[in-house]
Design brief:
Helix content: 25-40%
Order of helices and strands: EHEEEHHHHEEEHEHEHHEEEHHEHEH
Number of domains: 2
CATH topology of the largest domain: Rossmann fold
Number of strands: 14
Strand content: 15-25%
Length: 315
């Protein structure tokens, strides 16, 4: 059993590679829900949908999020009527939010809804939200404490960041299906996808039971650096690191995770960090980590699993 922690486009793309190499019963993808919010009366789960759409092969290949071949009649009409159109909801995408909102109103758990939606999209690998309870990422900034989507979308990540808070995490616990997995003794590795360490992986690790499970692990944790050549492949990770007073490098990301990660997969252009990572006691694999297509996602996943196999001593 392989458990992947994912959020955003980088997480979704590595999930595609892992899913190509691991049978459905052998891979569980745990997804960040700190980005979730209520908007226009709908319950929206951006990272869950990004992972689901990408695995289903219906994600917009250019934006990385939302549906391919999307239309925007709803948003165009809403804008003309003077409604809030700063968070773009495509017509196809909207149907998923409607179904999720209705199911939550009926009392269904987010994990149940996610499983049902994934099945409808033909996804056979398990996509599991980090928790069923609402957890909301709040960005501490020069403009005060901002709701994540306000910071990320409405303000386009412009405010200077000083920290993060995950409201509700102290009361959150893993969904039943994840709790059952955490009690199994056949987990071979956990994979930290190349997702933003602060706003994609951070909320998952803020769920105490998940973090404690990883800290007490008897299996290796392997991570792929989201920083390549001193830059984030996508998103505001590099900007956040600079504002938090951190060096923007694969090495700084490794120091951020500390003993929680046993092995690192870094890009060819960051090979100079390998000796320092090894000095920290980490196993290291060096490869092309840019996932520009499905074939690259699969090749990167192959390297990740090979490092996990080496670290865990399994075949």
């Amino acid at each position: 059993m392989i458990v992947a922690l994912a959020g955003g486009v980088g997480g979704a793309r590595l999930a595609v590679g892992l899913a190509a190499l691991c049978a459905p019963e052998r891979l569980t993808i745990v997804v960040n829900t700190g980005d979730d919010f209520e908007h226009l009366g709908f319950s929206i789960s951006p990272d869950l949908d990004t992972v689901m759409y990408t695995l289903a092969g219906v994600a917009d290949p250019e934006r990385g999020w939302g549906r391919a071949d999307e239309t925007w009649s709803f948003m165009e009409t809403l804008g003309k009527l003077g409604g809030q159109d700063w968070f773009r909801l495509g017509d196809r995408d909207l149907a998923v939010h409607v179904m999720r909102t209705q199911a939550l109103a009926r009392g269904e758990r987010l994990s149940q809804i996610t499983r049902a939606l994934a099945k409808l999209f033909g996804v056979t690998h398990a996509i599991v939200p980090m928790c069923d309870e609402p957890v909301r990422t709040l960005v501490l900034s020069e403009s005060g404490e901002l709701a994540f989507q306000d910071y990320f979308v409405r303000r386009r990540c412009a405010p200077v960041v000083s920290g993060f808070r995950f409201a509700g995490a102290e009361k959150a616990g893993p969904p039943d299906v994840l709790q059952a997995l955490m009690q199994r003794d056949d987990v071979e590795a956990a994979i930290v996808c190349p997702s933003n360490p602060f706003i994609s992986i951070g909320p998952i690790l803020a769920v105490a039971a998940i973090r404690e499970w990883l800290e007490a692990r008897r299996f290796p944790v392997i991570a792929v650096s989201p920083i390549v050549g001193g830059q984030a492949v996508k998103g505001p990770a590099a900007k956040m690191m600079r504002e938090l007073g951190l060096e923007v490098s694969a090495l700084a990301v490794a120091r951020h995770y500390g003993p929680l990660v046993d092995g690192w997969v870094i890009d060819d252009c960051d090979a100079q960090h390998a000796p320092e990572l090894k000095a920290l006691g980490k196993r290291v694999a060096i490869t092309n980590t840019l996932m520009c297509d499905r074939a690259r996602s699969i090749e990167l996943a192959r390297v990740v699993l090979a490092l996990a196999r080496e670290a865990g001593g399994w075949h």
